[in-house]
Specification:
Layout lengths: L1 E8 L3 H11 L6 E4 L8 H4 L15 E2 L12 E2 L21 H9 L7 H11 E3 L13 E3 L7 H12 L15 E4 L4 E2 L2 E2 L2 H6 L6 E4 L2 E9 L2 E9 L2 E13 L2 H11 L2 E2 L1 H6 L6 E2 L11 E9 L6 E2 L1 H17 L11 E5 L10 E6 L13 E10 L7 E3 L10 E3 L6 H18 L10 E2 L8 H11 L1 E2 L29 E3 L14 H20 L2
Parallel strand pairs: 1-2, 1-13, 2-10, 5-6, 13-25, 14-15
Antiparallel strand pairs: 3-4, 7-18, 8-9, 11-12, 12-13, 16-20, 16-23, 16-24, 17-20, 18-19, 19-20, 21-22
Helix pairs in contact: 1-12, 4-12
The structure holds flavin-adenine dinucleotide (FAD).
Flavin-adenine dinucleotide binds next to helix 1, strand 11, helix 7 and helix 12.
Length: about 525
């Protein structure tokens, strides 16, 4: 039977970071068990191929019907394969606000204040702009500026600035507020997923199993002793002498814990699963950024579009990328944007914009003819809380995902205020000079009518967290050193541990969590 020191479940943002850092320790043997493939396809590496990511690299989950979205099911893309969601995401490099982490510390998560996490963000980073108080160089995660932003994306920044929103050249610097062009996790014009950053350089030192779906954690005498997984039609086990680290993401990690008998006892019994630990918080506190996307049709250039001319220029951009890894095909699509407060009394921005120089419908799944631009606005610190529950005791079955979007009236109010501010920006010069026509809300100014349109169209902007929440309270799933309560040698290292959603995109914060978990595990092993 296979035996290693550490087994990591899931090779996404958190899992790749923790596995890579632990494998750097020559005394440790690390196995990384990932349900998906190696994700070495050029469509993953080429930023401009983001809308055409291979199906096998995306779990493509759906939510249960959402009352707050007029009964619709939401779409929940999640990365599958090495790199996880960082292999299919928009590559934006954002940490959130300093207040978010100070808030975690105030919630009882000792050791997670901004002062505590900033050095970890810096050590993870290799920022092409160089080093300063906020940024690091020489770390595994490549971060760079965009060099080919669409003129329309720059016009968004100018339009917002004309309304007195501050220009912010560094959202990860002294303040989050303001508008600008996002930095991206790319190197040499290629996507820099967490797997490229942390796993590829240590390939020789990590026992990587792909196409391997973890079915449950083996728990013996109250201790995580290894995992059982399905691979190539066979059922296998791998034992862990030191620790098992679960990093299956905000949907995968609570699912794996519940399948292992760690979760709400009644729910586990309903599925015929023997209860190992009755932990009510597992799969609870699901939080996600609810988002409304506006679309404005224009006559044509400079926006990306599905016309003969648009297709030719996309092909030209693709050839340029193949030749020199440069040009418009390095786009993250969400090129510019920013952060704003809908009320002056807030401790940090509560809405974020993502400007896309193309028409976007239904997460890009519905192709739209013609040219135009889109803009997202999302609620950064939602009050709505949902759940992840088992649909079945079969690990291959998708879990039941219920973000309870817009179930809290405060989120509706914030999103409405965000949409109003976004419309003012999109209709200000110089963006207005493109003569865009709002495809969904033109002429609608009544609050109730706007809310109806929002409920008909809003959905995730892909940042679910909170389902294995960290806390100092005994009810939390993991303690502030990411140890699962009441089980020895078991950790969680992904977005699911966030006690409150950060005010921004979640890849860099999740990598930071993976980095920290490696520190905690190493320190705990040294004490045994
Ligand atoms: C479309 C999209 C766009 C996004 N854009 C951005 C962005 O621009 N910037 C940003 O900061 N964030 C972005 N995000 C969010 C960010 O990428 C995620 O928050 C982050 O990657 C989550 O990391 P994680 O480790 O929690 O989970 P993941 O990266 O999703 O990793 C979980 C891994 O575990 C594996 N797994 C799950 N269950 C099992 C099992 N039972 N056995 C074996 N393996 C398993 C999965 O296959 C996956 O590889 C985006 C996300 C998506 C989906």
């Amino acid at each position: 039977m296979d035996e290693v020191d550490i087994v990591v479940v899931g090779g996404g943002s958190g899992g790749a970071a923790v596995a890579g850092r632990l494998a750097a320790d020559k005394g440790l043997r690390v196995a990384l068990i990932e349900a998906g493939g190696a994700n070495t396809d050029w469509r993953i590496r080429a930023p401009g191929m983001m809308p055409f990511i291979p199906d096998a690299s995306n779990w493509r989950f759906e939510t249960v019907p959402q009352a707050g979205l007029n009964g619709r099911r939401g779409y929940q893309p999640r990365g599958r394969g090495l790199g996880g969601s960082s292999a299919i995401n928009a590559m934006l490099y954002i940490r959130g606000s300093a207040w978010d982490y100070d808030n975690w510390a105030a919630m009882g998560c000792h050791g997670w204040s901004y002062a505590d996490v900033l050095p970890v963000f810096r050590r993870a980073e290799d920022n092409a702009r160089g080093e300063d108080r906020f940024h690091g160089v020489g770390g595994p995660l490549a971060v760079s500026d965009q060099h080919s932003a669409n003129p329309g994306s720059l016009a968004f920044v100018e339009a917002a600035a004309s309304l007195q929103l501050a220009r912010n050249p560094d959202f990860n610097g002294a303040q989050l507020d303001g508008v600008g062009v996002y930095q991206v996790t790319q190197k040499g014009g290629e996507r820099w997923s967490a797997a490229r950053a942390y796993v590829e350089p240590r390939r020789d030192r990590i026992d990587i199993r792909t196409g391997a779906l973890v079915e449950r954690i083996l728990i013996e005498d109250g201790r995580a002793a290894g995992v059982q997984f399905a691979q190539g039609g066979a059922r296998r086990t791998i034992r862990a002498r030191g620790a098992v680290i679960v990093a299956g993401g905000a949907f995968g990690s609570p699912q794996t814990l519940m399948l292992s008998g760690i979760g709400p006892a009644g729910h586990l019994r309903d599925h015929g699963i023997a209860v190992v630990r009755d932990r009510q918080a597992v799969g609870g506190a699901l939080q996600d950024h609810i988002d409304y996307v506006a679309g404005y049709e224009t006559a044509g250039a400079p926006f990306i579009g599905q016309t003969l001319r648009g297709t030719l220029s996309t092909l030209g951009a693709m050839f340029q990328w193949f030749r020199s890894r440069s040009g418009p095909f390095t786009t993250p699509y969400a090129e510019s944007g920013g952060f704003a407060r809908t009320r002056p009394d807030l401790p940090a921005p509560d809405v974020q914009f993502h400007f896309v120089p193309a028409l976007l419908e239904d997460h890009g799944r519905t192709k739209v003819k013609g040219h135009g631009f889109s803009c997202h606005v999302c609620v950064l610190r939602p009050h709505s809380r949902g759940t992840v529950r088992l649909a079945s005791s079969d690990a291959a079955a998708a879990p039941l995902i219920d973000p309870a979007f817009l179930s809290d009236a405060r989120d509706v109010e914030t999103l409405l205020a965000g949409v109003k501010l976004m419309r003012r920006i999109l209709e200000a010069r110089p963006l207005a000079d493109y003569g865009g026509r709002d495809r969904h809300m033109a002429g609608v100014h009544d609050d109730a009518a706007m809310v109806e349109i929002i409920r008909d169209r809003a959905d995730t902007v892909y940042h679910p967290v909170g389902t294995c929440r960290m806390g100092a309270d005994p009810d939390s799933v993991v303690d502030p050193r990411l140890r699962v309560r009441e089980v020895e040698g078991l950790y969680v290292a992904d977005a699911s541990i966030m006690p409150a959603l950060v005010s921004g995109n979640t890849n860099a914060p999740t990598i930071m969590i993976g980095e920290r978990c490696a520190d905690f595990v190493k320190a705990d092993l040294a004490q045994r």
